């Protein structure tokens, strides 16, 4: 790996010229995003060289800005490398955990910001049976297959093109996964579109088609810290999830199949509460995941259009995030396995609970769980999934 900060020189795209030479992707001085209002003012996406993989593949970083939000996406893994939002005083910070060079992502990343496929979360015993045939997957999490296997979509270089529609500015990412890749049947043609709307919302639309029956469950693995990445614990963020049930797990974090009620447990986020409030109450499920690492069964179920299901508020900065999705579930992960060994974009180390993920998706291990909504995709059908993240600030403390 040869990336150095000096290789991060801006390159022209033919569409637009990248902003001035950048030193690193650290949260920076006041940015265009900070100055623009929440009512539009988008710019065309810009592209710069971010690094080179060992096999010589080039990795680009794209920058999008619209409605007060600035987003940076890598062609490697389709990674959200930074997401800059203003706080209630208009001060901008990067609220997504990650690295300032490709090396960090390649060497040892717990899926920071990445697109996950073909299957988000775990498949028990690293195998499943479809139409009478059993498929063996790479086991990369004890006996189970996690996040698409040893080389999932998070570790692939995607084709990226700018996209624009009305006031929205975006990118279209494409990846073709060959029949049998990571053990999954069928050639899977995947398209992910990242869009910023004039109100600064981030929308992610996923589609996929196959030429053989297969299973699919795509998501994005951004770790959020609305106070700014590297600023410490997320325990004071207030979280609300519109879910009356969740899926308890066994000791390898595979759902038992039960849809348990959240009422009277630490899993009850139906009214907003600080993430840290019940983290230490000794509930056996919390002990199993070393914190929250569970799929919540969204009350609205699978929907054709994104419906609001989650809200998060960070009290110090006042930053807020709302999430709407078409998906029936969300994996709420409280960053339990961050262990102080990774240094993030800001140069600060990430410890347990310094970021949280809200992975909107179908339930873990659905291919082995007949009671869960199906994740089977057949030729002639299109997999579709959309999630919208809306950002804002609350008035004050
Ligand atoms: C998911 C899983 C967690 C963990 C993270 C990545 O959220 O459910 O158990 O593997 O991804 O570290």
Automatic annotation (TrEMBL):
<dbReference type="InterPro" id="IPR011013">
    <property type="entry name" value="Gal_mutarotase_sf_dom"/>
</dbReference>
<dbReference type="InterPro" id="IPR014718">
    <property type="entry name" value="GH-type_carb-bd"/>
</dbReference>
<feature type="compositionally biased region" description="Polar residues">
    <location>
        <begin position="35"/>
        <end position="44"/>
    </location>
</feature>
<feature type="signal peptide">
    <location>
        <begin position="1"/>
        <end position="27"/>
    </location>
</feature>
<keyword id="KW-0119">Carbohydrate metabolism</keyword>
<dbReference type="InterPro" id="IPR018052">
    <property type="entry name" value="Ald1_epimerase_CS"/>
</dbReference>
<feature type="region of interest" description="Disordered">
    <location>
        <begin position="26"/>
        <end position="57"/>
    </location>
</feature>
<keyword id="KW-0732">Signal</keyword>
<dbReference type="InterPro" id="IPR047215">
    <property type="entry name" value="Galactose_mutarotase-like"/>
</dbReference>
<dbReference type="InterPro" id="IPR015443">
    <property type="entry name" value="Aldose_1-epimerase"/>
</dbReference>
<dbReference type="Pfam" id="PF01263">
    <property type="entry name" value="Aldose_epim"/>
</dbReference>
<keyword id="KW-0413">Isomerase</keyword>
<dbReference type="InterPro" id="IPR008183">
    <property type="entry name" value="Aldose_1/G6P_1-epimerase"/>
</dbReference>
<protein>
    <recommendedName>
        <fullName>Aldose 1-epimerase</fullName>
        <ecNumber>5.1.3.3</ecNumber>
    </recommendedName>
</protein>
<comment type="similarity">
    <text>Belongs to the aldose epimerase family.</text>
</comment>
<comment type="pathway">
    <text>Carbohydrate metabolism; hexose metabolism.</text>
</comment>
<feature type="compositionally biased region" description="Basic and acidic residues">
    <location>
        <begin position="45"/>
        <end position="57"/>
    </location>
</feature>
<dbReference type="InterPro" id="IPR006311">
    <property type="entry name" value="TAT_signal"/>
</dbReference>
